[in-house]
Structures are given as structure tokens and as C-alpha cells.
# Entry
Amino acid sequence: MTTAPVITDTDTVILDHGTGARRSRELVELIAATLGDAYTGEMEDSAILRVDSSEIAITTDSFVVDPVLFGNGDIGKIAVCGTVNDLAVAGAEPRYLTLGMILEDGLPLSTLVRVLTSVRETAKEAGVVIVAGDTKVVRKGEADQIYLNTTGVGIFRRPPLRMRDVRPGDKVILSGPIGNHTVHLLSIREGLGFEQRVLSDCAPLNGMLAAVFEATGGEGVHSVRDVTRGGLNAVLNEYASSLGRTVLVDEPALPVQAETRMAMDMLGVSPLNAANEGCACLFVAPSAVDTVMEALRSHPYGAEAVVIGEITHEEVPRVQLLNADGRRETLAELAGAELPRLC
# Structure
């Protein structure tokens, strides 16, 4: 681990760290040293990048996680995973990230270093480099400790994946269980006692998806979406609406950890509406399902992958759950939030 310089006369972020003067330079040096070789080290006003592709993918996202630090992750890990995954599900190879930080006066520098350490470690796992960044400091009470913004750049070595390429008959596959991230964070916030048994699923999925694309030779995987805010409900309803088709889900096949289901029952909410940070939903041609499942299950982040449903030929834009007794129940898209803000 890179040894970060110590700012000896303060152990928290202070307003002077945002002035652009010596304090700002000290803070930037702390950030750069903690990021280590996950950061280019260039201190120019713009990053100059080489892109060996005729098409690139760009995505940006802001992160306001509560709590900032949790059992097996933090806002830094979520920021890198969220942006990397958005690039990967489009079929792109993630390459570069920017890192913007809004820091609140009084934020412990130890918290900042932990978050930056997670950024570094997750970026290295995902094979991406931090190429540019920015910090702003706001007064106490004007932010929730720390907000992050990341912009990602990826390159295409295969045709981009599009929602419009999904076809009737395609199978719907989940790469892993749903609801764990939500339960983990809510358990910490509300003192439910599940956080040791239910861990956040936060993970960079580009390696797993690259293995899927290599195994299929770029054929048969028509679209992929990461299942984040709004949960699986939001993803499936978005596809149903865009395609004008009914998505039929085998409800008993939905992968939900027993403790997660127990916690959700206590809270009176559905795992289908829960946020996740390391789960992908794949729409796959029937002929490629076996190959995709084998590739997913051979990767640690896809070991619990399961086929949960299909795109039907019914020209009615809706999501329906097929119950164990054979009855269908329409899954209505939420108009607002069923759960408090987590990320």
C-alpha cells in the first residue's frame, strides 16, 4: 500500500483545503499518494488519452451513499463499480475514470483515505486508471460527509449492446442474488443485525462480462443491464416498455438469500425493488444460454447465476410474475421510492 503524506496539524478536512492555496495542494498530494498507481500522476488541467477504437462509451454518475462506510465496502468502491459496470453492460471495455469529490468541512481524513484506498483497489481490479479529478470543500451541514462523481470512458472491441436488439424468446438471466446490498446498508442504519450474514454485492462486473463475451464469440447476448437503483423491477419494466412485449418471470427462480428475504419481510418491502451494486441482468438468445451460464458460473461474481424468465411474443408492455401455482401476477413499476435513499 502506498504511504500517504500526513497533514500533521489537522485530522479532518477543513474549508482551507478548498481555497486553492497550500492547504489545497496538501490535500491533492494526500489524494494522489493514496491512489498510487491507480492514478496517472499527471497534474495538468486536462488528461491526454490514447484511444485505439473508432467508437467509445462514456458514462457519468454521482454517488451519495448512506452510510458512507459499510461492512464490506464504502462510497469509493461503489463509485468505481457503478461507473465500470455501466460501461461493461454496454459491451465496452472500461479504460479511464475521472474522480470528482465534494468534501464536507469536518470529514475525518481517515475516512477520506479509506474511501480513496477503495477507489485505488477497485480500479486496479477493474483494470481502469484514474486520469483526472477535482475536489471541492463545502461548509459543515452542506453535504453528507462526502459526495463522489465519476465519469468513465470505455472502448468497443465488439458491437455495442442495445436494448432494441432484444427479441421475443430471449431468456432473462441474473448473474447473482438480488437485495443484498440494500439489506446490508439498511441493517447497519437501522440496527437490524443482518449485516454480518448479508454482505453488499458491490463488485466490478467487467471481468465477468468479458468472459461471457469471449465464450459466446459476441453472439447471442443481445443486451445487458446492471441492476441498481429501482431494482430488478425497474430494469424489467424498462425493457417491457421499450420492446412493447411482456416479460414473464418465474417467481420461484428469483435468487434471494434467505436472510435477505427475512429482512425484507420485516421491512415490508420486495427484493424486486431493492438496489444492487454487483448484479447484471442479461437478455440472451436461447441457443446461447448454456454457454452464457457456464461462463457466468465459472466467475466468482456469477457463481449463483440463474435463468429467471423470458421475453414473450405477447405484444403487451408489462412484467408478469409466474407464481409456483401457475398464476400470473403483473408487477407494477413503482412511481416513487419504496425504500429510503441508500445510494
Q: What stands out?
A: Helices lie at 22-35, 75-88, 109-126, 180-190, 206-216, 231-243, 258-267, 289-297. The longest strand covers residues 92-104. Residues 109-126 form the longest helix (18 residues). The chain has a mean pLDDT of 92.
